């Protein structure tokens, strides 16, 4: 980590100052500041200084670092090919110096239960942190940067008055960030594992993950070489394991010796060494703003990402490259700093999402210990969702093939095209067309639009096509355009659609999702104002408790005992009609804040009778409805339940409760849980991102022991292959991709060169079973290219 700077002034370290601007935090008029101060002499700060000086040799650049030049923490630093490419183009001299010290390797070894699995082709480069700092010190001196080592930086407001630009590279404990906390608005999130940085005096021949199952709990080792005779070793474990093992009572030397003993096999019996090493808890740093006037944050001061997906140094160096480029490109400092943040923020956010997925995987490592050995290794490698099935296949086809064989994939069959059985229904692949409300029915009757919409997607290759939420009563509709199954005419209309699917898309199953809108009903069509009340013709709403969905919205009536009976019977009657209409699967909608979901969430269920209070009480009515539906639904046909595994709101359904909800439905006969999240309360704060809901499905699958359907921003066939093969889900439901491309599954098969029973093309479409040719896409140009004196542009 970058060193933390103090806030005390050091008058003798200021140098020659220019007259102060009238407003100390007014941006300079030009983005080519003549005087720049860097707070923090870690890699990010030093590299920023070198780039700024190289861009403008007449610029005065001063670096303040309170530590000595060789007083560094940590041991090795890993840099990616992308980061190294940026360094090479921006400053070949630094790249050449780094290259002389690189240790490179391709393999990742995963050792679990005395079995070692190796995956190749990963292309790592690392060097000692001390060497990195020496190289950057030398480069700064060569360029004329004023390095003030063993020197506390003056307070940031003082620096801002006498410099055009102040770069705060003062680490995770940034004093600059704290000085302007009300401006930067930082959020620091602690996590559940303790870890310690150590070193071994030999070089691992790979990046090594070793799992130790001790009497106190699970511990893991992350190790990699950074020199021909040295390796970084990080030991990590959950807080409760750390305490149970007594590490909280050991000093640095005792902890180091204890870790060496626990991981003696990985170390070959050799000792570990420390360097001011201490057990710590990782904290994710997020700032709402990265700049204030002429002060800007970079590296750990601005953001952190867990070490298990890469180096904080990597992010800091990339920040430096982007900041230098923006300063060179923009006419004013304010525009440059805004452009820097605009460029880097989405990249960092993506990295932090991946880091969160990775650190949570290690926090919950014991969840996966019983997986088959190769699947466990694949799961570990793909934990951040950045490394995928296809990516691993390109790197190491032999490893990926071995995982697929253990999983049970037929030869030359991607994981997504392996069959899956639910009760008496065998699905030919793992793709589900997710329920999507179309708001296009008339009096609850599905028409030609539904026939074409669902029929097209059934022809498109998915194993299971789901209807939108089909309402069990007129009062249970969301909008006037919602489909229903509360009349015989509606049942006959649905039969027309299921007959088409079974006749024209043999092998495709069609499922119905039954639900009741609850307090979210009597609203306009989505494109006329989602969740907005109807301008006229509203119908009364019912819910577990008299709470409107949105402030100022219609207040529902609290369901009485008699009304609960009526609603239960409406579900039962609709299920009987669904069976008669020929549906292959029935899903009970207990998610997204609709009626049954309203009972499950403590935010929407304030009842004081037997149907409220504890989770057991909140589950009572949804389970009664499930039982009523199961009684009339044919025994050989499967039933699933969609739940919101989190409300994304304080005081809402917890992940632990979601597991218990899933267990309860499974105990009553649910064949799978369709795991969605949110949409329960209007004030939710979802954490969107690629496959962002999958961790909830993963947890339910492993802890409740029930098959799951994962949903939520799963957009590529590579995602589906990765999630299924890693054991995070059994089926993947995709919505928007199927709106974009009704034949998404068939196209996924064509793009993977698969032509088998898991993706059967309808005879009239066979001519389109090969992907069309595409044009060339050129590689992006380097972000920043700087030429030295005397070099041609």
TrEMBL record:
Pfam families: FAD_binding_3, Oxidored_FMN. Residues 35-352 form the FAD-binding domain. It comes from the Bacteria. Residues 416-749 form the NADH:flavin oxidoreductase/NADH oxidase N-terminal domain. Residues 1-33, 755-793 are annotated as: Disordered. Residues 23-33 have a biased composition (Polar residues). NCBIfam families: PRK08255.1. This is Bifunctional salicylyl-CoA 5-hydroxylase/oxidoreductase. It comes from Streptomyces tendae.
């Amino acid at each position: 980590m970058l060193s933390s700077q103090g806030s005390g002034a050091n008058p003798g370290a200021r140098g020659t100052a220019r007259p102060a601007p009238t407003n100390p935090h007014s941006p300079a008029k030009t983005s080519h500041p003549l005087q720049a101060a860097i707070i923090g002499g870690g890699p990010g700060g030093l590299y920023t200084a070198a780039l700024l000086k190289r861009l403008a040799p007449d610029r005065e650049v001063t670096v303040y670092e309170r530590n000595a030049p060789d007083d560094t923490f940590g041991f090795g630093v890993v840099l990616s090919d992308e980061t190294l490419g940026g360094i090479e183009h921006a400053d070949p001299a630094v790249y050449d110096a780094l290259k002389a010290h690189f240790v490179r390797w391709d393999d990742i070894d995963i050792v679990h239960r005395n079995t070692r699995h190796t995956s190749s082709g990963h292309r790592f480069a690392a060097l000692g942190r001390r060497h990195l700092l020496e190289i950057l010190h030398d480069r700064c001196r060569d360029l004329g940067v004023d390095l003030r080592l063993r020197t506390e930086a003056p307070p940031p407001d003082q620096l801002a008055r006498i410099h055009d630009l102040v770069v705060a590279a003062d680490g995770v404990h940034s004093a600059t960030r704290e000085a302007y906390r009300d401006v930067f608005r930082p959020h620091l999130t602690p996590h559940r594992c303790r870890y310690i940085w150590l070193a071994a005096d030999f070089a691992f021949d790979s990046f090594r993950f070793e799992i130790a199952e001790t009497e106190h709990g699970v511990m893991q080792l992350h190790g990699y070489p950074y020199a021909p005779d040295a390796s970084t070793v990080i030991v990590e474990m959950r807080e409760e394991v750390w305490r149970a093992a007594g590490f909280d009572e050991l000093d640095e030397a005792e902890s180091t010796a204890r870790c060496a003993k626990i991981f003696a096999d990985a170390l070959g019996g050799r000792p570990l060494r420390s360097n001011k090493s201490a057990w710590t808890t990782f904290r994710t740093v997020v700032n709402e703003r990265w700049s204030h006037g002429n002060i800007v944050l970079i590296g750990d001061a601005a953001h952190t990402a867990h070490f298990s997906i890469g180096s904080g140094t990597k992010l800091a160096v990339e920040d430096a490259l982007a900041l230098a480029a923006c300063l060179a490109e923009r006419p004013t400092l304010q525009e440059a700093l805004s452009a820097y943040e605009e460029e880097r923020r989405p990249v960092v956010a993506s990295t932090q999402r991946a880091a969160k997925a990775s650190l949570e995987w290690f926090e919950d490592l014991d969840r996966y210990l019983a997986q088959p050995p190769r699947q466990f290794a694949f799961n570990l490698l793909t934990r951040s969702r950045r490394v995928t099935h296809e990516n691993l296949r390109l790197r190491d086809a032999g490893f990926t093939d071995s995982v697929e064989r253990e999983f049970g994939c037929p030869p030359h069959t991607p994981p997504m095209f392996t069959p899956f059985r639910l009760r008496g229904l065998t699905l030919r692949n793992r793709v589900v067309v997710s329920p999507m409300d179309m708001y296009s029915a008339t009096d609850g009757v599905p028409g030609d639009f539904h026939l074409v919409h669902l029929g097209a997607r059934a022809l498109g290759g998915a194993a299971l096509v789901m209807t939108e939420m089909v309402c069990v009563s007129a009062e249970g509709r969301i909008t006037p355009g919602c489909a229903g199954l509360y009349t015989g005419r509606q049942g006959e209309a649905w039969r027309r659609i299921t007959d088409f699917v079974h006749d024209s898309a043999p092998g495709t199953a069609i499922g119905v999702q039954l639900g009741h809108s609850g307090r979210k009903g009597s609203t306009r069509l989505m494109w006329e104002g989602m969740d907005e009340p109807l301008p006229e013709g509203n119908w009364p709403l019912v819910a577990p408790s008299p709470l409107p969905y949105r402030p100022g919205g219609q207040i529902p009536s609290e369901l009485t005992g008699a009304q609960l009976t009526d609603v239960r019977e409406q579900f039962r009657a609709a299920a009987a009609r669904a069976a008669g209409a020929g549906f292959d699967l029935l899903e009970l909608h207990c998610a997204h804040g609709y009626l049954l979901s309203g009972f499950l969430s403590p935010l929407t269920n304030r009842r004081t009778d037997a149907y409220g209070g504890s989770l057991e009480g909140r589950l009572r009515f949804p389970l009664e409805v499930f039982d009523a539906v199961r009684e009339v639904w044919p025994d050989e046909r499967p039933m699933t339940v969609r739940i919101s595994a989190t409300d994304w709101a304080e005081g809402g359904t917890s992940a632990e409760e979601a597991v218990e909800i899933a267990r309860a439905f499974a105990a009553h006969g649910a064949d799978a849980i369709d795991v969605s999240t949110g949409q329960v309360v209007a004030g939710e704060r979802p954490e969107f991102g690629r496959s962002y809901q999958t961790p909830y499905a993963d947890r339910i699958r492993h802890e409740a022991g029930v098959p799951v359907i994962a949903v939520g921003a799963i957009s590529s066939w590579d995602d589906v292959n990765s999630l299924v093969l890693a054991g995070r889900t059994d089926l993947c439901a995709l919505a928007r991709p199927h709106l974009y491309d009704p034949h998404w599954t068939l196209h996924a098969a064509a793009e993977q060169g698969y032509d088998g029973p898991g993706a059967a093309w309808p005879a009239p479409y066979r001519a389109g079973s090969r992907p069309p040719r595409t044009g060339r896409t050129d590689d992006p140009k380097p972000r920043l290219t700087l030429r030295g004196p005397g070099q041609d542009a």
